[in-house]
Design a protein that fits this description.
This protein has about 325 residues and is mainly α. It folds into 3 domains: about 80 residues, 2-Layer Sandwich (Dna Ligase, domain 1); about 80 residues, no CATH class; about 140 residues, no CATH class. A hairpin with a 5-residue loop joins strand 7 and strand 8.
């Protein structure tokens, strides 16, 4: 009887070894396995199944127990090549050989676009969907009631199964660090009283030009106009005021649209940013070029024409706008 039991145990052990060494698939293309945070054997088996790898949850639980390294498995994205056995895949999980999930916030995104991106990211827990804007900001510790412009444009790396609220918090803290650092390096005499006002101005610069070499001059124009008490007359603020449903080119009556963000009718800076400003736009807002320019117009090739007086600006508009 002891011989029979030993034989059965040896057969089971041999079957388990064979199972661990059998290729998980033989397709030419690798299969991607997504391992979320907090995955135990049952969740691992489900993740393997979603990737098209047939792994028994019961056997996997025994194998993980025998290996004794289940607490080391890292949440990440793993590419399983053809012929890879289960044992090697578990080695990859234990050694952290996967890739993090990523999310990119792009310069010029509005808060509405940021929310859309985070609410529907496949590897984030959508725990921010049920929160309105002020509640979300309170959860992450951000001041105020508007999330516009508060999150640093960057590529964020995180483990699958991360909370969306925590990613909002990371992106806000990253923006706050950049803003505070640049605020400490600002030029003296700027007509900007707070870091938040600098963020508002930077968002306008971000939307006015995509060319790094023009940002400091665009900032200079806005700073010069603020010092003179002139209306800023920034088209992107009017577009923001008109809302995302507006299509087509701005007309004269659009410029007279009464709204707190429309700098054609309201003096000074808008009450909030109008988009996410990048590092370059923040630097330009706080260290603008020295110039006597009060006007600028897009040339149509991505660059900008700057003018010191209204007559020169009108000639530039005639040249670059009406003769296109």
């Amino acid at each position: 009887m002891l011989v029979g039991a030993a034989f059965a145990l040896g057969a089971a052990s041999g079957a388990m070894v064979s199972y661990r060494l059998t290729p998980l698939h033989q397709d030419p293309q690798p299969r991607r396995v997504v391992i979320p945070l907090g995955s135990g054997p049952a969740a691992l088996a489900s993740a393997f199944e979603r990737a098209g790898l047939s792994v028994s949850a019961t056997r996997l639980a025994w194998i993980v127990r025998l290996r004794g390294d289940g607490t080391r498995y890292r949440a990440a994205l793993y590419d399983v090549a053809a012929g890879l056995p289960l044992n090697r895949l578990l080695d990859m999980l234990a050694n952290g050989e996967g890739q993090p999930a990523t999310l990119r916030l792009i310069e010029g995104y509005t808060f509405r676009q940021v929310r859309e991106l985070l609410d529907h990211h496949p590897h984030l827990i959508p725990d921010a969907r049920i929160l309105d804007e002020p509640s979300l900001l309170a959860r992450i510790g951000a001041p105020g009631s508007s999330g516009e412009g508060l999150f640093l444009p960057d590529t964020y790396h995180f483990a699958p199964g991360t909370s969306a609220v925590s990613l909002y918090r990371d992106a806000w803290r990253a923006m706050d660090r950049v803003l505070q650092r640049e605020w400490s390096r600002r030029l003296a005499g700027l007509p900007i009283e707070t870091p938040y006002q600098a963020l508002v101005l930077a968002s306008m610069i971000e939307k006015e030009t995509g060319r790094a070499e023009d940002r400091a001059m665009v900032a200079s124009v806005f700073v010069n106009r603020l010092k003179k008490g002139m209306l800023l007359q920034s088209d992107p603020t009017t577009l923001y005021a008109l809302g995302p449903s507006f299509e087509g080119r701005l007309r004269r009556r659009d410029l007279q649209f009464e709204h707190p963000h429309n700098t054609y009718v309201r003096p000074g800076l808008p009450p909030t940013p109008i988009a996410l400003p990048g590092r370059g736009a923040i630097e330009a807002a706080l260290r603008p070029a020295e110039s006597t320019a009060f006007y600028f117009v897009a040339r149509g090739d991505g660059s900008t024409e700057f003018s010191n007086d209204l007559k020169a600006h009108q000639r530039a508009v005639e040249r670059f706008i009406f003769k296109r």
